[in-house]
């Protein structure tokens, strides 16, 4: 098997004296979805933030495409960031309220001092199923599902290899949810994207992920193929 | 059929937004019978919470409410809710902190709720409060009653609110997304606490949720709302097995299947998004997203009428052609 795209080893995240993530290890290959599940407060989001180099871990290693991310300065991380991108739960909260959709999508490229080529933003909008006429609107003028597509388009702008999806559909209406998940599936099949997928909904996890890691009190207590996940995995299972 | 416990007829709730009338609930009718659990499902903006607030006699400021709300035949619309509120009808909100005061202990607040409707001694009221906490599964209830809301976890707070709603043994409880903020294990505990309290008191329940799996597990009947109206209602089993409104069919089809198909990772999805209440289509509100829409759907809004099994109603011009296998009805690819 080829080298994993992401290899996290013995990751530790602390808030003051509290250890939120305690020696967590996992890997994700290109084209693969690893789901992280577990009760509220068990450390899923903290793991995601450390993986994204948005929170400095207290220990362990995060290797992404052969680069060791822990210990890099922001200046050194900057050229790598477009390759691993977050999509967060709250579609409105993750967009700047005063930035037009077109500019919100181009923003990560501008931050890289790589202003988008003519038509690139429109292409991204089409990729995620957004009507390009929405480009001039502000986030509050879009629906939740449209905003979440903007978030995905933004993440795609720098041609990422890995998306970290923290509850990407939980805030969406049920009739809109399946469409966003199908979009993520299509992008994975077309481009071989890898996903770290955090989700409370076990039925969705079983459907969408390839493998599942179960977290409890900061540790991964079980990893298994998604199809072998029982829908009561969070109530029972190893304590 | 005995007289329903709650009968809501032609309920309209109109808000004002930016100088315009916003028709948020548009002619909703449903009934709840004694001891029954009726789920009100629909997406955000469908009008579920406004319906709850109108039925409870506490619509938002400036809202215009018309129609009829009868509790055991007695009209409540435009009448005083004195003697109804807390005693015959109670409310469980999504966020416990909107009804629990941070500066009083949980036990004191439930005790006060008891004494607000009945002349009982403080001790008697206190022991009923503790019993109510015990009934929703709060261990060591007498001691925990002395805690403040912030000393409880989210799930415990929600159970405390259920205890408070149930302590006066109301006939009807309206719970608005009571578990949406909780993770699945805690959600299951809270729903069980609600069911236990309901069994013990014999209360009927209107359960507002957008989670169809909760409906399947906990409700007897379901009302599916879309853009301020009921598009389908009836006993849960036939509605889920053979929905007669395309919107219901799409919602059910987009749930991940119980059996995981190794090959097929696509979920049937409903393209587009719900309409804004200020820009409703002229005819059927679902027409812009409906794979079965025809010309007359865009001209004429369908009325709720019997369709399918006894007790099942649907608002769709083509309900007699349904059910078709819903998985074939909606696209299974990423929407472009
Ligand atoms: N900024 C912070 N400062 C202090 N403690 C924090 C902070 N962020 C998280 N924690 C704590 O770290 C632990 C793990 O939190 P985390 O947000 O990673 O959980 P989670 O699994 O994502 O939970 P949820 O399912 O509720 O989103 C929790 O005990 C939480 O209270
Ligand atoms: S009335 Fe027409 S548009 Fe509305 S749900 Fe039925 S078929 Fe679809
Ligand atoms: Mg989280």
What would you note in describing this structure?
The complex is a heterodimer of chains A (about 240) and B (about 325). By secondary structure, chain A is of the alpha/beta class. Chain A has helices spanning about 45-50, 75, 100-110, 120-125, 145-155, 175-190, 200-210, and strands at about 5-15, 20-30, 35, 60-65, 65-70, 85, 160-165, 195-200, 210-215, 220-225. Chain A has one domain: 3-Layer(aba) Sandwich (Rossmann fold). The longest helix of chain A has 18 residues, at about 175-190. By secondary structure, chain B is an alpha/beta fold. Chain B has two domains: about 5-220, P-loop containing nucleotide triphosphate hydrolases (Rossmann fold); about 245-335, no CATH class. The N and C termini of chain B lie far apart (about 50 Å). The radius of gyration of chain B is 21 Å and the shape is globular. In chain B, strand 9 (about 220-225) and strand 10 (about 230-235) form a beta hairpin. In chain B, helix 2 (about 105-115) packs across helix 3 (about 120-135), helix 3 (about 120-135) packs across helix 5 and helix 5 (about 155-165) runs parallel beside helix 6. Chain B has helices at about 50-55, 105-115, 120-135, 140-145, 155-165, 185-200, 210-220, 235-240, 245-255, 295-300, 325-330, and strands spanning about 5-15, 20-30, 35-40, 65-70, 75, 90, 170-175, 205-210, 220-225, 230-235, 305, 315. At the A-B interface, helix 5, helix 6 and helix 7 of A face helix 6 and helix 9 of B. The structure holds adenosine-5'-triphosphate, iron/sulfur cluster (SF4) and magnesium ion (MG). The site of adenosine-5'-triphosphate (ATP) has 11 residues of chain A, from strand 2 and helix 1.
């Amino acid at each position: 098997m080829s080298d994993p795209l992401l290899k996290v080893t013995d990751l530790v995240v602390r808030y003051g004296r509290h250890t939120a993530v305690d020696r967590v290890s996992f890997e994700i290959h290109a084209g693969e979805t690893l789901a992280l599940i577990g009760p509220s407060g068990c450390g899923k989001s903290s793991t995601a933030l450390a993986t994204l180099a948005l929170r400095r871990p207290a220990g362990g290693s995060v290797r992404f495409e052969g680069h060791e991310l822990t210990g890099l300065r922001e200046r050194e991380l900057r050229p790598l960031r477009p390759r691993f991108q977050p999509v967060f739960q709250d579609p409105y909260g993750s967009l700047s309220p005063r930035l037009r959709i077109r500019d919100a999508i181009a923003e990560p490229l501008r931050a890289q001092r790589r202003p988008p080529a003519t038509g690139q933003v429109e292409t991204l909008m089409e990729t995620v199923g957004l009507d390009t006429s929405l480009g001039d609107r502000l986030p509050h003028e879009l629906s939740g599902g449209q905003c979440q597509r903007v978030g995905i388009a933004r993440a795609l702008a720098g041609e990422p290899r890995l998306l970290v999806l923290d509850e990407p559909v939980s805030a969406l209406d049920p009739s809109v949810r399946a469409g966003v998940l199908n979009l993520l599936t299509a992008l994975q099949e077309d481009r071989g994207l890898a996903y770290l997928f955090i989700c409370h909904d076990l039925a969705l996890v079983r459907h969408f992920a390839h493998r599942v890691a179960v977290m409890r009190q900061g540790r991964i207590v079980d990893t298994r193929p998604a199809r072998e996940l029982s829908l009561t995995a969070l109530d029972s299972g190893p304590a | 059929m005995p007289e329903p416990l709650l009968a809501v007829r032609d309920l309209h709730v109109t808000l004002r937004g930016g100088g315009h009338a916003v028709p948020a609930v548009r002619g909703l009718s449903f009934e709840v019978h004694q001891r029954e659990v009726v789920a009100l499902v629909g997406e955000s903006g469908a009008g579920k919470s406004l319906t709850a607030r109108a039925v409870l006699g506490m619509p938002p400021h400036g809202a215009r409410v018309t129609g009829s709300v009868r509790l055991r035949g007695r009209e409540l619309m435009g009448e005083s809710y004195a003697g109804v509120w807390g005693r015959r009808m109670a409310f469980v909100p999504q966020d416990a902190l909107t009804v629990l005061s941070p500066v009083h202990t949980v036990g004191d607040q439930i005790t006060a709720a008891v004494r607000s409707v009945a002349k009982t001694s403080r001790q008697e009221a206190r022991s009923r409060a503790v019993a109510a906490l015990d009934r929703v599964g709060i261990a060591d209830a007498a001691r925990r009653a002395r805690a403040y809301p912030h000393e409880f976890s989210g799930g415990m707070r929600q159970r405390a609110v259920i205890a408070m709603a149930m302590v006066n043994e109301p006939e009807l409880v309206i719970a608005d997304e009571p578990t949406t903020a909780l993770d699945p294990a805690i959600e299951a505990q809270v729903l069980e606490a609600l069911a236990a309290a309901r069994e013990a008191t014999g209360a009927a329940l209107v359960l507002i949720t957008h989670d169809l799996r909760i409906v399947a597990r906990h409700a007897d009947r379901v009302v599916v709302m879309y853009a301020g109206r009921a598009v389908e209602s009836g006993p849960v089993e036939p509605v889920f097995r053979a929905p007669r409104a395309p919107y219901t069919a799409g919602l059910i089809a987009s749930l991940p299947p119980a059996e995981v198909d190794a090959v097929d990772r696509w979920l049937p999805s409903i393209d587009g998004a719900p309409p804004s209440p200020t820009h409703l289509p002229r005819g059927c509100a679902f027409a812009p997203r409906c794979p079965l829409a025809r010309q007359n759907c865009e001209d004429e809004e369908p009325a709720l009428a019997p369709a399918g099994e006894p007790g099942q109603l649907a608002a769709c011009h083509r309900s007699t052609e349904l059910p078709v296998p819903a998985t074939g009805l909606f696209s299974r690819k990423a929407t472009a």
